[in-house]
Amino acid sequence: MAIEPAVEQRLVDEARAARHASYSPYSGFAVGAAVLGTSGRIFRGTNVENASYGLTICAERAAVFSAVSAGERAIEAVAIVTPAPPATPCGACRQVLWELWSPHRRSEPTVLIASVESSQPDRRSLASLLPDAFDATSLGEPPH
Ligand code: THU
Q: Which of 73, 74, 126, 133 could make an S-S bridge to 109, C-beta 3.0–4.6 Å?
């Protein structure tokens, strides 16, 4: 099921807006993310840093956790906006994104990557970013 171009554009706009709330005093690297839940709702996230650096949470995971906390159980797409050049999600975020995609797998998951300077996002599939992912099937369970 393809996502409408207008919805993709809105997802990128929401991720761009989410950057403005970034709490990144240590890196100065403000990231915004927005996930599209299967209900059609969009959830924003931004990176939240900490003086004990390791507790920092990325924008992508913040957005996913917000969606799940609101009752979403699967996501269709994610948009990420970073300082230039556009950056792909870190490994931890890829794994967390995969967990919420694997339940339905109705369509090729879309990862939209843009920078503050780019007007058109790059389009990736999560499977290309995280081949041979570990998930429920690795535990001998059906996808949740
Ligand atoms: N960051 C994200 O929010 N998403 C990513 O995919 C990569 C990195 C954040 C974490 C940290 O606050 C800053 O960017 C620099 O690594």
A: 126
> Domain total for the chain?
1
Rounded to the nearest angstrom, the distance between the alpha carbon of 31 and the centre of ligand 1 is 6
Q: Look at ligand 1, atom 4, and give the residue with the nearest C-alpha.
A: 58
Name the amino acid, one letter, at 30: A
Atom of ligand 1 nearest to the CA of 93: 6
Catalytic residues: 60
Q: Is position 90 within any domain?
A: yes
We report the CATH number of the domain holding residue 24 as 3.40.140.10
Report which protein residue has its CA nearest ligand 1's atom 3: 58
Q: Tokens at residue 139, please?
A: 């535990």
Q: Which domain holds residue 52?
A: 5-133
| Residue 144 counted as domain residue | no
The Cα 142–Cα 102 span in angstroms is: 10
- Does residue 119 sit within a domain? yes
